[in-house]
TrEMBL record, chain A:
It comes from the Eukaryota. Residues 15-82 form the NLE domain. Keywords: Nucleus, Repeat, Ribosome biogenesis, rRNA processing, WD repeat. GO terms for biological process: maturation of 5.8S rRNA from tricistronic rRNA transcript (SSU-rRNA, 5.8S rRNA, LSU-rRNA); maturation of LSU-rRNA from tricistronic rRNA transcript (SSU-rRNA, 5.8S rRNA, LSU-rRNA). It comes from Herrania umbratica. It is found in: Nucleus, Nucleolus; Nucleus, Nucleoplasm. One of its GO terms (molecular function) is ribonucleoprotein complex binding. WD repeats lie at residues 149-194, 204-245, 271-311, 357-399. Pfam families: NLE (PF08154), WD40 (PF00400). PROSITE patterns: WD_REPEATS_1 (PS00678), WD_REPEATS_2 (PS50082), WD_REPEATS_REGION (PS50294). This is Ribosome biogenesis protein WDR12 homolog.
TrEMBL record, chain B:
WD repeats lie at residues 336-377. It comes from the Eukaryota. This is Ribosome biogenesis protein BOP1 homolog. Keywords: Nucleus, Repeat, Ribosome biogenesis, rRNA processing, WD repeat. Residues 74-329 form the BOP1 N-terminal domain. It is found in: Nucleus, Nucleolus; Nucleus, Nucleoplasm. Belongs to the WD repeat BOP1/ERB1 family. One of its GO terms (molecular function) is ribonucleoprotein complex binding. Required for maturation of ribosomal RNAs and formation of the large ribosomal subunit. GO terms for biological process: maturation of 5.8S rRNA from tricistronic rRNA transcript (SSU-rRNA, 5.8S rRNA, LSU-rRNA); maturation of LSU-rRNA from tricistronic rRNA transcript (SSU-rRNA, 5.8S rRNA, LSU-rRNA). It comes from Herrania umbratica. The keyword rRNA processing applies. Residues 1-68 are annotated as: Disordered. InterPro entries: BOP1/Erb1 (IPR028598), BOP1_N_dom (IPR012953), WD40/YVTN_repeat-like_dom_sf (IPR015943), WD40_repeat_CS (IPR019775), WD40_repeat_dom_sf (IPR036322), WD40_rpt (IPR001680).
Length: 436, 673
């Protein structure tokens, strides 16, 4: 079947292909084999599929697609791809298409007063950001700030949403360079014109130096934090059964709004082993904590015993770590070089990363796995770019370079948005990313 | 048959002859019986028999020695002759005819037996002998090998001739020595004896030789062991022709410029044009030239140059590969921007979280290393020469020199407890320093600075560098123009100041404390002096042999010192080896502004006004027998020049193999591995 839209009648080679997809009805094209020129790349294939869809449905709006041949994404011309992979061009080629993983919409930036240092998008209803002015902010949508978390005396370095599913009130934790962590409670539902000022209900003291990272347990009753004093501290989040809450009204409350009780918490336990700043912690499973440090190591801690189970040495300073992907077991980490490395700790003798992505040009400040799909992750870098990666290809799926300066933090939000903040004091939301 | 026999007298030996005679007389009939079968049957044995018989003839000498006399002389005697010893040989008893007949009848081989009259014995003929006899009887050649019909060998050359010129055999004269020749030989012999003929004539010198030829190749010259050919004069060219082409002729202007030249630079020969050979004058310098040439040849000592063919690559020292020496800073990833003037000094906080910088714009800034964020700014109001973090991590205070003041700033980091301590420390209870010796108080005074809430140490001259002691209580300041009070030691806890009790020779540039012992290094413009502070004496003087020292750094183990100089040279001193530099590296084309050692990695760096910083691998071994290993690793570029200054300061991160560089272009860069 020849397609009418195809115009280039030059004598380039033609390949018999059949487009298949796992997408639902409006995205389906007839599965008859067609002959297309072999020098088409992703864009050409995408336009062909769009034309085919248009032939079925005349009101079809053009949509970018991405193409998989034998489970690998096509990132060059079809001919080169077939040559590189050694696939015969004689047979009918089956090309699977998926909706391209690229943001289709860019929301208006949400301005901050200072550098945006941390962002958490694990709750579908709001985004939590931390800022260098010491304030945490809650954004319901782009440009709409609902709550301001006030209390830190220095820049916030990391934020984490503890339980987002709780009805009414939401608990979040923030870590700051003033050596404390604070826990906050607010009602994510209420929204008024003016952002509500929230005070911390609990201050967690115990670190001797700036706290660099905070992560919450999945069950929500504990958080862990990594700090410049080379330790990881574990804290309880529930305020009721702590014994230190008797001295609730502290003298440091200079504000007149002192009716809220503020309790102080002590660390439950301390994980010692890193020799330098613990730059990033994640708590993906019930009793396992992963931490990345400036001493070039990734460690896996057993929470019950406080021992580190395994070390991965990478030779570079690590700034961020995330665990996810296939079976929630792959460790992605980035640091003081432009390479995003992914390790598989299940492999025996895993000193070498299983994947390395090298498209950034400066330090990597954050990396996050997509929580539903096992192939996708994002990374942000000091070169001002946020890149979306697929494990099946070595090139980034898409590059978001709307930030004007270094990007300090990035996260997924609602499964189809990327939120990122940086030195340009803006929280950018790129939405409508179709993750299959 | 008889006739045949007689024709071959010489070929048959006497024995045979006699045998034959006997055959003639006696056994004639027996031999006539021609036994063909016998001959055939025994033909295989014939050769052997011949050999045997021949040998027996040769070996067995005839016993009778009478010689070739007629035997009838002994016919009637009882002896037949004499043996070798001269004894008579008796005649044997002869068989009578009947006996011999009977014997011939009995013995079939008896016919072979013949009687040897000469030796008086019976000889049994061998088969070979009988064959020979038979052949003779038939008139053939006696030996079977002899071929009477051998192919004819034609000695004549039949080139064209159909017939031979002569078939005659060679004449006799060909075989007779020539008389005429012998006469001639005699004549020559006489001539030689008289001396008329000489054999070794003296060699004639060739009358012509190649004037411009290569002397070195001529055989007689190279025979000498150390012959050095004299340098050849230049060959004449076209310009020396009497009528050279126009392009060789200099113009008048050129000739005039020759006059302005030095005598040596002036061309020796100026081409001139003559219309004919007739008009060429005599060469005026002929005698002078030849004299000078002779002088040259005579006076110029010529030495055979010994050229050694060495691959220049092989002379390079074997250095380990850079790849094996990782990690070291390579790429610039972060920049700290905010200063408005050249950054003159940087200092990294001991934990490596923050970095302080002092700039020409009069500000001191503290930056977060990780993000490049400027955390604090102090307006000092005067160009900040030097900043130095206190080496104690629990005492985050900063010493800053601006002009003639040194400020001890509270950075505000650290927890509440530490802050309280710092605040106590930075309080001067009573501003009384006058109770010390008077000369110090005139030089320095401690003040409380209200504006920045810090201590201000007011010196009497410009302070160029500050250095903390490792315990964080003492601090030394250097005033290059301070003469005898150029280096002062301040004790922060007691707010006390002391003068360094040593006489400095030369202007002090910088000072460093030993990282572990109470030793103090003072770099003056020419030398580095090493003092023991406890015993209060000079330990060592390191002679840099540099024009002007600009900076000094001590290896964390304390036994090695690097010194940078304003001419771009970097000296590495191994204190255990000598007071001379162990290695001098000349790599910067411009002044070295600062040098730095890494605290834990085997790295050191130098930065220079040529806008580069060099990173070296400097391994110091615990084994005293092994000298330090120095390998240049990387040139870090990126800064731009401003006011003729490039990179002004460089410092390593205390824990990572990272290098901070401060540039005159008002930026600080971080180079990571």
């Amino acid at each position: 079947m020849e397609i009418d839209g195809e115009t280039n009648e030059d004598n380039s080679r033609r390949i018999q292909v059949r487009f298949v997809t796992k997408l639902k009805a409006p995205y389906k094209v007839p599965t008859t084999a067609i002959a297309i020129p072999s020098d088409l790349s992703r864009l050409g294939l995408s336009s062909i599929v769009n034309k085919l869809l248009q032939a079925v449905d005349s009101e079809w709006k053009t949509e970018p697609f991405d193409f998989l041949i034998n489970g690998e994404l096509v990132r060059m011309s079809l001919e080169q791809f077939l040559l590189a992979k050694g696939i015969s061009a004689e047979k009918i080629l089956e090309i699977e298409y998926i909706r391209a993983v690229a943001p289709r919409k860019e929301e208006q930036p949400s301005p901050h007063d200072d550098w945006v240092s941390a962002v958490d998008g694990s709750s579908p209803t709001f985004i939590l950001t931390g800022c260098y002015d010491g304030l945490g902010r809650v954004w319901k949508e782009a440009g709409l700030c609902t709550h301001i978390l006030e209390g830190h005396s220095d820049a916030i370095s990391s934020v984490s949403i503890i339980n987002s599913e709780a009805l009414g009130s939401v608990t979040v934790a923030t870590a700051s360079k003033d050596r404390t962590l604070r826990l906050w409670k607010f009602d994510a539902e209420d929204s008024n014109d003016h952002p509500a000022m929230i005070r911390a209900f609990k201050i967690l003291r115990g670190h001797n130096a700036s706290v660099h990272s905070v992560a919450a347990k999945t069950s929500g009753d504990m958080v862990c934090s990594g700090s410049w004093d080379c330790t990881i501290n574990l804290w309880r989040t529930n305020d009721s059964d702590t014994d230190g809450d008797v001295v609730s009204i502290k003298k440091r409350k200079v504000n007149s709004k002192a009716e809220q009780s503020q309790s102080e918490g002590e660390a439950v336990s301390m994980l010692v082993g890193h020799t330098q700043c613990v730059s990033s912690v994640v708590w993906p499973q019930h009793e396992t904590i992963f931490s990345a440090s400036w001493d070039h190591s990734v460690r896996q801690w057993d929470v019950e015993t406080g021992k580190d189970l395994s070390d991965i040495f990478c030779g570079k300073v690590l700034n961020s770590i995330d665990v996810g992907g296939e079976g929630s077991a792959l460790i992605a980490a980035g640091g003081s070089d432009p390479i995003l490395r992914i390790w598989d700790p299940r492999k025996p003798g895993t000193s070498a990363p299983v994947f390395q992505f090298c498209s950034h040009s400066s330090w990597i400040s954050a990396c996050k796995w997509h929580d539903r799909s096992s192939f996708y992750l994002l990374s942000s870098s000091y070169d001002g770019k946020v890149m979306l990666w697929d494990l099946r290809t070595a090139w980034p799926l898409s590059v978001l370079d709307t930030h004007k300066d270094r990007v300090l933090c990035a996260d997924w939000w609602k499964g189809d948005c990327v939120v990122s903040g940086g030195v340009d004091a803006q929280l950018l939301i790129c939405s409508d990313i179709s993750i299959p | 048959m008889n006739h045949q026999e007689s024709q071959r007298p010489e070929k048959v030996n006497p024995l045979e002859m006699r045998d034959l005679g006997f055959i003639e007389s006696g056994n004639n009939d027996g031999l006539d019986d021609n036994h063909e079968q016998d001959e055939l049957a025994d033909s295989s044995q014939s050769h052997q028999a011949v050999d045997e018989s021949d040998s027996s003839e040769d070996e067995v000498a005839p016993r009778n020695t009478i010689g070739d006399v007629p035997l009838e002389w002994y016919k009637d005697e009882k002896h037949i002759g004499y043996d070798i010893a001269g004894k008579k040989i008796k005649k044997k008893e002869r068989q009578d005819k009947l006996d011999s007949f009977l014997a011939s009848a009995d013995d079939s081989k008896n016919w072979r037996k013949i009687y040897d009259e000469y030796n008086d014995e019976e000889v049994e003929l061998t088969k070979e002998e009988t064959k020979l006899i038979r052949r003779l009887l038939k008139g053939k050649a006696p030996h079977a090998e002899f071929d009477p019909y051998a192919p004819y060998v034609d000695w004549f050359k039949w080139d064209d001739a159909k017939h031979p010129l002569s078939n005659a055999p060679e004449p006799k004269r060909r075989f007779i020595p020539s008389k005429w020749e012998s006469k001639k030989v005699v004549e020559y012999v006489r001539a030689i004896r008289k001396g008329l003929i000489k054999f070794d004539k003296p060699k004639e010198e060739p009358r012509l030789y190649l004037l411009w030829g290569d002397d070195s190749s001529s055989a007689d010259r190279t025979k000498h062991l150390a012959y050095i050919p004299p340098p050849k004069p230049k060959l004449p060219g076209h310009e020396e022709s009497y009528n050279p082409s126009l392009e060789y002729l200099p113009t008048q202007e050129e000739i005039n410029t020759y006059q302005l030249m030095y005598e040596e630079d002036r061309p020796k020969f100026i081409p001139k044009r003559f219309t004919s050979i007739r008009s060429i004058p005599a060469y005026e310098n002929a005698i002078k030239d030849s004299f000078e040439r002779c002088l040259d040849l005579y006076l110029c000592p010529r030495v055979r140059k010994k050229r050694i063919n060495i691959d220049p690559e092989s002379l390079k020292p074997k250095l380990p590969s850079r790849k094996d020496l990782r990690p070291y800073p390579v790429t610039c990833y972060l920049e700290y921007r905010g200063h408005e003037g050249a950054v003159l000094s940087i200092s990294v906080e001991p934990s490596g979280q923050w970095i302080a910088s002092g700039s020409k714009d009069g500000t001191v800034r503290i930056w977060e290393v990780e993000t490049g964020r400027c955390l604090r700014v102090w307006e000092i109001g005067e160009a900040v020469q030097h900043v130095a973090w206190n080496p104690l991590p629990e005492l985050p205070i900063l010493a800053v020199s601006a002009g003639s003041d040194v400020l001890i700033l509270n950075t505000g980091f650290g927890n509440e407890e530490q802050q309280r301590k710092i605040k106590e420390l930075l309080q001067i209870g009573t501003p009384t320093s006058s109770d010390d010796s008077d000369n110090i108080s005139s030089v320095l005074s401690w003040h409380q600075d209200e504006k920045h809430d810090c201590i201000r140490l007011r010196h009497f001259r410009t302070v160029s560098s500050i250095e903390w002691h490792r315990k964080g209580d003492y601090l030394s300041t250097v005033m290059p123009a301070g003469e005898s009070k150029a280096i002062l030691m301040h004790q922060l806890s007691k707010k006390l100041t002391q003068r360094l009790p040593f006489k400095l020779h030369g202007l002090p540039v910088s000072s460093v404390f030993h990282p572990t012992r109470s030793i103090f290094f003072v770099a003056t413009k020419k030398n580095v002096r090493v003092y023991d502070l406890l015993r209060q004496k000079l330990i060592k003087k390191l002679e840099t042999q540099l024009r002007e020292v600009s900076s000094i750094a001590v290896h964390p183990a304390g036994d090695n010192v690097i010194v940078g100089s304003k001419e771009g040279k970097l000296c590495w001193f191994d204190m255990d080896l000598s007071s001379k530099p162990y290695k001098t590296l000349k790599c910067h084309p411009k002044d070295i502004t600062n040098v730095a050692f890494h605290r834990s990695y085997p790295l050191f760096a130098s930065c220079s006004d040529d806008c580069t910083a060099y990173v070296f691998h400097g391994m110091v071994y615990a084994d005293l027998n092994q000298n330090p290993l120095i390998v240049p690793l990387e040139i870090l570029r990126g800064h731009t020049s401003s006011d003729g200054r490039g990179v002004i300061d460089c410092k390593f991160h205390p824990r990572q193999p990272w290098l901070f560089t401060a540039g005159a272009d008002s930026s600080i860069k971080l180079y990571c591995h």
